[in-house]
Design goal:
44% of the residues lie in helices and 17% in strands. With 402 residues, the protein is of the alpha+beta class. Among the domains are: 5-61, Orthogonal Bundle (434 Repressor (Amino-terminal Domain)), CATH 1.10.260.40; 173-320, no CATH class; 339-401, no CATH class. The strands form two sheets. The chain has a ten-stranded antiparallel sheet with strand order 2-3-4-5-1-6-11-10-9-8. A two-stranded antiparallel ribbon has the order 7-12. A hairpin with a 2-residue loop joins strand 3 (111-115) and strand 4. It starts with a helix and ends in a 7-residue tail after the last helix.
Length: 402
């Protein structure tokens, strides 16, 4: 249904006022005249569809609600000890009895302990020590425990360094809620040498294209741009988060709050210095954008000028902090749930199970009922049951228990 002049004008005016944005500021952001915005709001003119999209996308960039949020998205730390109980109890401040023990490991470790997406790997070799790995969902789960422990990420990272923890990897993720980062446009700028960077390489992948790396979500990251070598201690990954959520969970792209994601991926010394900076200033925006500014800048090509003198592109300048509110480190605590398994059951098992149950009914058999009655729960299943039924207060270590 085509939008009327009145409905468009009212929607624009109401939204702009709700955001507390002047017509002039919106006009500047959209590269339009203030008079054009004024006439659009009074109904004297109705912009064509492309202009409407431009105006509302520009307005979203000025949304006082967080258009950009930052999260810890990957943490890997090695501790020079073989005492896994000490690390779990005194650093993670979790009850080891609730963790599932597996007699195999990764990265040449011999065994590991796991609770949901929190992995603690161990080895009798002191040189390997104990390795903590928190991937994206593991970070969200850890945040639920930190919240219950009344600790922040800064407190936790300081505790890790006090225990002589060696930073192996740290990813900072900046979520773009308003679609400010146009990945195809940034890719084009990179190809046109409008990405001024100390990095010598960049790679781009279209939606659905196979990423030739160890990415976990190779096929579901949408348009993706890597800046820097994936083998280096620092590189950036910019991708369409809304497309990823659509592929993984079937969530409509329009209903996904995070449109794009900019990930700063740091390893070894680079990860350590980032943590040191975070603990010194406790200002995640400062740390993140100091790193970004040190390595890349997107500019608009200007003839007869040196590349270093090209003006920073408007959208990139806004992303870096020009004319927008402060970006703070946010948390999104999510307790360990059975949701991922349920999602797998729903997509992979439920249809076949439903068919088998219907066949049981048609053939007057009880195959499914018999299978369920005869199924035996392993120690692993029983441990997961314990984890899922426990209160968070039982899982964490309280100050009085130390």
């Amino acid at each position: 249904m085509k939008e009327t002049t009145t409905s468009f004008a009212e929607r624009l005016k109401n939204k702009r006022k709700a955001y507390g944005i002047s017509q002039n500021r919106l006009a500047v952001t959209a590269s339009l005249s203030r008079q054009y915005i004024s006439e659009a709001e009074t109904g004297k003119t109705i912009p064509p569809p492309d202009k409407q999209e431009l105006i509302f996308s520009s307005l979203e960039k000025l949304n006082p609600e967080a258009t950009l949020t930052m999260l810890f998205d990957y943490v890997r730390i090695r501790f020079p000890t073989t005492d896994v109980k000490h690390i779990v109890h005194d650093v993670l401040k979790l009850n080891l009895n609730f963790m599932l023990h597996e007699d195999y490991g990764f990265y040449s470790y011999t065994e590991h302990y796991v609770m949901g997406d929190i992995f603690v790997l161990t080895s009798p070799d002191l040189e390997k020590g104990v390795l903590l790995e928190l991937k994206g969902q593991g970070c969200r789960q850890m945040e639920s425990y930190l919240l219950a422990q009344e600790r922040s990420w800064y407190d936790f990272l300081l505790d890790c360094l006090v225990e002589s923890g060696v930073m192996k990897r740290l990813d900072l993720a900046i979520n773009d809620m308003a679609g400010i980062l146009n990945i195809p446009e940034l890719t084009e700028k990179s190809m046109n040498e409008e990405c001024i960077s100390v990095f010598r390489t960049f790679k781009s992948y279209r939606s659905g294209e196979l990423v030739q790396s160890r990415e976990q979500d190779k096929l579901g990251m949408g348009n993706t741009l890597y800046i820097g070598s994936l083998k280096s201690e620092v590189y950036f990954c910019i991708y369409e988060k809304d497309y990823e959520q659509y592929v993984k969970y079937g969530i409509s792209i329009d209903d996904t709050p995070v449109k794009n994601r900019f990930e700063i991926r740091l390893k070894n010394d680079r990860a350590y210095y980032a943590v040191k900076d975070l603990l010194t200033y406790q200002d995640a925006e400062r740390t993140a954008f100091d790193i970004i500014n040190r390595y890349i800048r997107f500019a608009d090509k200007e003839e007869n000028k040196e590349r270093s003198d090209w003006k920073t592109s408007a959208s990139w300048a806004w992303f870096l902090g020009s004319d927008r509110g402060r970006l703070k480190l946010t948390t999104k605590p999510e307790p360990y749930t059975f949701q991922r398994t349920l999602h797998w059951l729903n997509r992979q098992v439920a249809p076949t199970l439903k068919m088998a149950m219907k066949l049981d009914k048609v053939n007057d058999t009880n195959h499914i009922k018999d299978m369920l009655e005869q199924a035996k729960l392993t120690d692993k299943h029983l441990k997961i049951l314990q984890q899922q039924s426990a209160e968070i207060e039982d899982i964490i270590i309280k100050e009085s228990e130390e």
